[in-house]
Amino acid sequence: MLEILADRTYRHLFAAQVVALLGTGLATVALGLLAYDLAGENAAMVLGTVFTIKMVAYVGIAPIAGAFANRVNRRAFLVALDLVRAGAALCLPFVTEVWQVYVLIFLLQSASAAFTPTFQATIPDVLPDEARYTRALSLSRLAYDLENIVSPMLAGLLLAVVSYNSLFLGTVVGFAASAALVVSVLLPSPKQSEPRGIYDRTTRGIRIYLATPRLRGLLALNLAAAAAGAMVLVNSVVLVRSTLGLDASALAWTLLAFGAGSMLAALALPKLLDRVPDRPVMVAGAALMVLTLLGLAVVVAALGLSLPFLLGAWLLVGLGYSAVLTPSGRLLRRSAHAEDRPALFAAQFALSHACWLVTYPLSGWLMTQFGPVVALGLLAALAGVGTLSALRLWPKEDPEILEHSHDNLPLDHPHLHGARRHAHPFVVDENHPRWASQL
């Protein structure tokens, strides 16, 4: 997997991702402490609002940014967004009112909503070979999982010698370093698409996404991952601290089990995906999450919750979670021309976070109102709906090259070369406004 780091451009981009993630992790810890300083016992409400603002920015801004990503120099665009994020983080230590936090977080997360899908869409242009790109996806998944472990540890060490406001300076350094690494390499810029109106550009990624069967299946799997992931991320603290009555270190081990499962899957997936198609791997990952949540619900109802059962369950959920999310970039890469990838990655970013916007509050409400058994059971059911929908929406036979006919184009159209029926790698575009079976 590490051999792809021999590519200088990718190595610098991966390093940019890592330092930006570390900076974001430091900001997450500092933000909780800042919220407590500003709001005291209402800190949870402040943080809940912050996370809602984050999701709204992701869902609303990403498609708009994706529409314009190919209209500007991609390297300059990414560097400018990193600098905006650094500037917002630099202002956070000086806020005195809660509303100022909301404004700065919206600015920072809006820049992230533009940066992340554009960055993700750049990687397949840097690594056009699918096997190398698959390893890059696994390496990226590992970076996210390691960030969940390293950032809190680093924050804890820094807080022993500096105030929490200094953590925001670490965030600034992370984003500034990311900008420097991006500016140090030349990025491929795919040809611009035909001139289009603002509405057409803004909705293009989502229209391609929803018109492509494998991506409709991916959206359903995103719902399954969000349902299971929300159970882990939202309710672990309640399960550990209230249900089990354990301390914060037990919570850290619980979240570590989830991250370890995700890392194990990310390490295994490159070789597995060389031999097995994406669909069975991703569906199996979703099914593993469903069965694990159901199994844990049965155990809790029959025997009560114990830490070993919770650790084992979260390890399995992490395996399934990574098996669903890691290959998703391969599906997006396969489903659009290079010039449409930023818009398509932005659509995935927005639609997947829309799933989280539903499951985050649902998970917390179910746990608060009905307890762990009902929360586990109903979130497993929601993940099951996503899994079964994926099986229905994503055909088992999903070849990249499709034979199809064009009744929608005149016979002298350059795309046809005089033959209405032909075969080629099929994606939704101007010449193919619907999937092949409908043409």
TrEMBL record:
GO cellular component term, pick one: plasma membrane
Keywords carried by this UniProt record: Cell membrane, Membrane, Transmembrane, Transmembrane helix
Residues annotated as signal peptide: none
Transmembrane portions of the chain: 12-36, 42-69, 167-187, 217-238, 250-269, 281-305, 311-332, 344-367, 373-394
UniProt cross-references to Gene3D superfamilies, sorted A to Z: MFS general substrate transporter like domains
Residue stretches making up the Major facilitator superfamily (MFS) profile domain: 9-398
Pfam assignment, any one: MFS_1
Membrane-topology annotation of the record: Multi-pass membrane protein
Family matches, as SUPFAM superfamilies: MFS general substrate transporter
PROSITE patterns: MFS
Highest rank taxon of the organism: Bacteria
MF (Gene Ontology): transmembrane transporter activity
Localization in the cell: Cell membrane
PANTHER family in the cross-refs: INTEGRAL MEMBRANE EFFLUX PROTEIN-RELATED, MAJOR FACILITATOR SUPERFAMILY ASSOCIATED DOMAIN-CONTAINING PROTEIN
Name of the featured protein: H+ Antiporter protein
Source organism per UniProt: Devosia enhydra
